[in-house]
## 1
Amino acid sequence: MTTSVTSEHDPPGTSAPRAARGWAAVGVIGELLITVGVVLLLFVAYQLWWTNVVAERAADQQAIALQDSWSRPPLTPGGGEEGTEKQRRPKLGDAFALMYIPRLSDKVWGMPVLESVELPDLARGIGHYPESQLPGQKGNFAVAAHRATNGEPFRDIDRLRVGDKVYVEDRDSWFEYTLQRDRIVAPQDGWVIEPVPGEPGAKPVERLITLTTCNPRWASTSRWIWWGELSNSWDKATEDVPAAIKAGR
Amino acid sequence: MYAWLWNHLPGPTALRVLICAVALAAIVAVLFIWVFPWLEPRLPFTDVTVDAASSTGLSTAGDRITSL
């Protein structure tokens, strides 16, 4: 009854009762809220599903391009034939190695390692901290990878155990690292990727690998670190592919 | 809002449905190709690179522990 009463103060030409216009406004707000909800759901789909699709495709392309470049002679003279202590520094953003982790073979099996830990590069493979050493070198070969979204190579880092192997293949060699210990640290703990972790300036004797990823998986409040040491290496020119790699994933 | 849009679309129902489908696909494409990739690094979920305040002798610019 009361809703049908049109106020005398309504401007001329507006026939819609105030209450009806009020409900129309509520309707528009409701539709906008539903739209926002749908967009947020789309973002979840993008983050959880689409970034993985794109990243896995990009990683495959990187790996294929890298293996293709290995099948050709090195472009710059001096590369490739020197010992592991004098490996060529890869260009920033370039893939230069492939990683195989039998325990994480769902994800990390021929996964490209890129010279960079910037986000766009981590969406194409595993990132190598450019300030850290190269595979097989004395010091620390330190890498980072996503644990959730964007390919999530280290999704199952919680399944790694002491003694697990990590294989790294570059143009000339295979390297086998054996994982020794893990630790959860703060994001600021840059010491974990030092040549001798925790001993700044110390002269490295061991040949280490460091894996870093986020912890907990769906947040970035801390970092999960795994350290390992070089336990074997093979010269691709004279030796066969490591048995664990030959066996397949 | 959507009722008003629907009423202002031209043509029979089938054409209106087609227009809606194309518009929806375009909006989703814009979101996935431009908006979400822009938004992603600005949210804490993939906030993965952190500057270390440590004086470890590592290069200052690259002293980070990464990632999500």
Note: Strands of chain B lie at 50-51, 64-65.
## 2
Amino acid sequence: MTPLLQVRGIEKRYGARIGCTGVSFDLYPGEVMGIVGESGSGKSTLLSCLAGHLAPDQGQVIFDTRAKGPVDTVTMAEPERRMLARTDWAFVHQNPRDGLRMGVSAGGNVGERLMAVGARNYGQIRSSAEDWLGRVEIAADRIDDRPAAFSGGMQQRLQIARNLVTGPRLVFMDEPTGGLDVSVQARLLDLLRGLVRRLGLSAVIVTHDLAVVRLLADRLMVMKGGLVVETGLTDQVLDDPQHAYTQLLVSSVLQV
Amino acid sequence: MTDPVTDPVIHLEGVAKTFTLHNQGSAVIPVMEGAELSVHAGECVGLIGASGAGKSTLMRMIWGNYLAAAGTILVAGTDVAKAEPREILALRRGRLGYVSQFLRVVPRVPTLDVVAEPLLVLGVPEAEARARAADLLARLRIPERLWSLSPTTFSGGEQQRVNIARGFAHTCPALLLDEPTASLDAANRETVLGLIEEAKARGAAIIGIFHDEAARSRVCDRVVNVSDFTPKAA
């Protein structure tokens, strides 16, 4: 089986400071990988490099494209990479305001991504938008409301609908449940798990919440100071951590 | 050549385990060495030994959430001690089941879905998976009115029965049971022992930890004392 994503030696520096360095891994179709670490560990920098929001200084991010097979997205032409970002990739931001257009209706937010890949039939766009709002448990009568009128949890679910409507194969998530209260988090986790299973999505999830990765991620990567200090099966890394930093991280948490 | 009829489903050889506590003066604690174990299809082996002897540690190494320091842990064709995470995940999806003492689920998910999930992951149609889940929950005497609620609010014994239902939902060729009858009343204990006997009859290879001696002697064909694998003091 060809990995969906092959990451090779990714490095990003901010001047003399290291953002992240020497990161390599393979992600297979249907796999969910969690990246954990404290603030400043380089996990968000890495995610930005993987998703093409930041240009890494070194390394390759090879994605198995539908048309041409594995292609390095770092050296790919900008229009091609943007097309990937609109079709096969999705990016769920921590703050839904970064991933939504706040002045456009909920239905419009979902429909816009379809139009960006060439959908033109208004009736079909609206019915896809309705279908997706339903899947993320947003009532159909809210379709014409703007996201500004939604709660934080609803905004996050709307952002997920907007991202998944084009049937991506790879989803990048940056603290998808951060900033939500616990019961809303649970609802979102349930939703994400169901979607990952039913759609066979692969995902890379950055979070500092070990309980979230325990429930969502198959595999785990632990980062500290821009380096990957430990990788493995999620429950193995959490139950039998090998690296000093991971042991500290796991023992510092109340109940994971 | 491997022979599915005579080769063991679970086979451990030379398995060792050490814990290194980096944040406590890098203390290295050897807890197990030279562990050997073979379980054939249709057989149930009980792990015995004093508390702290390493029964759960050995079971966790077989499940793959503890890393073995040495040795081979062959389970239904996969060497857990050396396998890639995705190989272990594939093993857990289809061939290796585990009933742990703790129920870990996403809050808010209905009990019926929690139990059906291992089948849904394997692509079993939803109606069929739910029917199987409902059958198990009914056998384990979880009242139907609770099936639509999340098990996170259930009592300890109810949670344990949900965990057992989940563990038995898919008919795995290899099964790990950590204290499956602890804290169950007589009727439910009987049901669980019945489930274990059915699993053996269909050819599952089972490793169990039972503090309940009567249960152990009823379902286990033999026992292995994990104290035999305790490293000798140098």
Note: DSSP finds ten helices and ten strands in chain A.
